[in-house]
Write a structure and sequence with these properties.
four-stranded antiparallel sheet; Mopterin_DH_FAD-bd; 25% helix; 22% strand; FAD-bd_PCMH-like_sf; five-stranded antiparallel sheet; alpha+beta
Length: 297
């Protein structure tokens, strides 16, 4: 977290970032003040300080809010504060005694970022950027997470992570609304998981990332596709599907404009890889289910 005594603070200088020379003030988030045009929440700052932000005039710093990074709730669910860093999440997962714990580290590693970024970047920032390749979106959507959002007047609401990100860089977040935390339900944490990721080049941004979760209580299977698509797609099957059913369901759920298109992968390639990785995940979690390799070509 950044701690500021004046507007021109530079704790991120070692990351090779730029000054935000339009910012006139950095306000402590604990101090209530009316939201105004040009305001932005400041978490780790790794995105804010990575490229020009000419629209910004004031940053509202969340680093001193004192939110506990990770909290086990009485019902067994896990609440992750928006200000929890990737490093804190990784350290927690190393000793987290649940079947889904390995998925946390896999998604942390999907950042392909230096330790400097790990120690600054936050879960909330990754979700609120809404980028298709955001691995914290992948993690929390796959584990059926829900966002706790707080408006300027104090009103709170919850929305599923899979519905929170609505497109590339778009999210269900009102003016001045704050992402307070994400809660992962206890049942999701008991699931067996499978993880697949692909990039066009080594240490590159994810071109497709697919996560499967198998519920040990009812045998249901969820397949979550991110990075290849402009928003998360979480498909739930009451019983493990065949390869053909999975292929048809995924291909029918994602429309042509929803396959992401940028320098890190063309839509046709992303679709092909998402379908291929989804079948690999299905086969790993349900090895005795009928196989239909011909379904994914």
């Amino acid at each position: 977290m950044l701690r500021t005594s004046r507007a021109a603070r530079l704790p991120l200088a070692s990351l090779g970032v730029m000054d935000l020379n339009t910012v006139l003030e950095v306000r402590d988030g604990r101090q209530r003040a009316p939201w105004r045009t040009g305001d932005a929440w400041l978490g780790g700052g790794t995105y804010l300080f990575s490229e020009p932000q000419p629209q910004l005039r004031r940053l509202v710093d969340l680093s001193r809010m004192g939110w506990e990074p990770l909290t086990r709730l009485p019902d067994g669910s896990l609440e992750i504060a928006a200000t929890c860093t990737i490093a804190q999440l990784s350290r927690f997962a190393a000793t987290f005694p649940v079947p889904a714990a390995p998925l946390f580290e896999q998604c942390c590693r999907a950042f392909l970022a230096s330790f400097k970024i790990w120690n600054m970047a936050t879960l909330g920032g990754n979700l609120c950027n809404g980028l298709p390749a955001g691995p914290m979106i992948s993690l929390t959507a796959a584990l059926d997470g829900s966002c706790l959002l707080q408006a300027q007047d104090g009103r709170r609401r919850r929305v599923k992570v899979a519905d929170f990100v609505t497109g590339a860089g778009r999210k269900d977040l009102g003016e001045g609304e704050l992402l307070r935390s994400v809660t992962l339900p206890a049942r999701a944490l008991t699931c067996r998981t499978a993880f697949r990721q692909v990039s066009l080049y080594g240490l590159g941004r994810s071109g497709a990332l697919v996560i499967g979760t198998l519920d040990p209580l009812d045998g249901s299977l969820a397949i979550t596709v991110t990075a290849a698509t402009v928003r998360p797609f979480r498909l739930w099957f009451p019983t493990p599907p065949t390869a053909a059913v999975l292929h048809g369901t995924l291909d029918g759920a994602v429309t042509e404009p929803e396959w992401f298109d940028d320098i890190h992968g063309l839509p046709a390639w992303r679709r092909h890889m998402a379908l291929r990785l989804a079948e690999e995940v299905r086969a790993e979690l349900t090895p005795h289910s009928p196989s239909a390799r011909e379904a994914v070509r």
